[in-house]
Design goal:
The protein has 619 residues and is of the alpha+beta class. Mean pLDDT is 87; it is low at 5-20, 121-127 and 131-141. The strands form 2 sheets. Strands 3-4-5-6-8-9 form a 6-stranded antiparallel beta sheet, with helices on one face. Strands 1-2-7 form a 3-stranded mixed beta sheet. The protein is 52% helix and 16% strand. It is built from 17 helices and 9 strands. Strand 5 (202-215) and strand 6 (222-237) form a beta hairpin.
Length: 619
Amino acid sequence: MKTSFRLCTAVLLAGSAAAQTAVRIDPQTGGLGWLTHPYQTRTVPPINLANTTRLQSLERAGNLYLAAQDVVALAIENSIDVEVQRYGPLLAREVLKRAQSGGVLRGVDVPVAQGPQSVSLQGVSVANIGTTGAGSGVGSGGGIVTQLGPAIASFDPNFTLLTVFQHATTPESNTFLVGTDALVVNTRTYQSTYQQNWSFGLSAQVTFASTHTSLNSRSFTLNPFTSGDLDLLLTQNLLNGFGSAVNGRNIRVQKNNLKFTDLQFKEQVIVTVSAALNLYWDLVSFVEDESAREKEVQAAQQLYDDNKKQVDIGTLAEIEVTRAESQLYTAKQDLIVSQTNRAQQETILKNLLSRSGVASPDLAEVRIIPLDRIVVPEKEEIRSVDDLTGEALNKRVEIAQSRINLDSNQLNLVGIKNSLKPQLQAFTELTNNALAGELNQPGASYFVGGYGSFLAQIARRNFPNYSAGISLVIPLRNRAAQSDYVTSLLAIRQNELGLRKNVNQVRVDVQNAVIGLRQARARYDAALKARVLAQQTLDADQKKLALGAGTAFQVIQDQRDLANSQSSEVQSMANYSHARIALDEALGDTLDVNHISLDEALSGRVAVGPSPLPAEDKR
């Protein structure tokens, strides 16, 4: 509950600039204060489709300059998927309020949305780790909503007022008794009732009723007269429906669901941030690949020009010009593919970082300039899988969600088991009666008086009634309750197995992530060595060609091999970044590694400012 209160407070107490557009529930206003607020509606502001100012501050001269931390901040602030999940804690808190009144639970779960993927990962495997969507990762599903077991009474007290005015004319067959052939009775009845239920199974009802009666007959000793009573009725469930564990189970379950919703918001932030970083590092690799392809085109163009000059002066066969021209057009084709990948990647990333997507003409035309480069450390220090798995089990969201749902099902089982018991109720009723009116013929003067005398008789308890008893209802066979209990118990056993499966899956995720990181590192080392050797080979063959010992065809092949090895190196660096992000997800470290505060994520405002723009655009 502390986490839930902290998350909701972060929204409600956001700064003045953010408060105008924050996801929140506005309280009631006007009326007679607390007296009328329970009967007034609260309002929820319209959705906010405006981007934060961070996006505009990073744009200059048609370029959008982004560092990795800017991508993370923009994804948190502007992602529609994250914005949808911001409503989750507020929805869960409203359902908790409903449960505290004795109402049935409502399902408000919204599955975690998967982030977009890059244009072309070329062999990169990005696992869907820990998402709660159906069929992805080791998700544990939504919160628990069930209404089996004894019905839960309303915990909100009720106050009822009843007023009845009646005129009745009845023809009489015995005029001797009533003194008239048509009895006319005028009555005014006033009744007020207060009813309250408690979670331990006690129900109380206090009723005050008075009826003023006036007749056209002289046969009544009192006429007109006021009669009524003050009545207290207490009913306590002793078996079925007894105890706060039974009647308060929905409140406890919804408190668990509130924790579940907070964890689901956290999971959405993790998934969105991971997707944004994957897109960003892929864009970085596409930029690097485009640069390498541009150099490939320049080298091919230079070789084509040189060969053409040598053919003109007769020192080189004409076929070498054809070969160089073929290499030039192949290099240009590779460059076009690289440029296309970059442009499409920019579109996907801009759609994630902006609530309006690429609908804005300004954003649609800007080019994204990455400010960071992929850095692969010289050494990779990885702890043992056992240590990493232990850390992951403590941090992974879906493990905590599975445990919460299991606890909720066990709380519900208490109520379902209680429904097996017979219905045994103890009740008692205390009534104070009163009668007062005008003396119409000789009789007891004690009853002569007005409304004050009527109330005094009730207060003095002159005419009390007492009653008490026990009601027992025994369902024969009781098959429905037996079936509900066993079915729920079987479902709990399945949940326990599901939790164990999730724990096993976490170990698989961690181990595969570690293997993937090691393989990505090995792939990068091999690609780096291949690129260095390709560069050395090209340099050597160019020297041979200059000395007349080599061939232009060999140089063309070397240039193509170098371009491919440069592309492989860039892709291996992207693979490494994906493997690093996947390991962070598997360990549940995504938020810590990227310095993300859940309070900031929920409020939609990241405290860290945008990265400084470069002094000069050299692109």
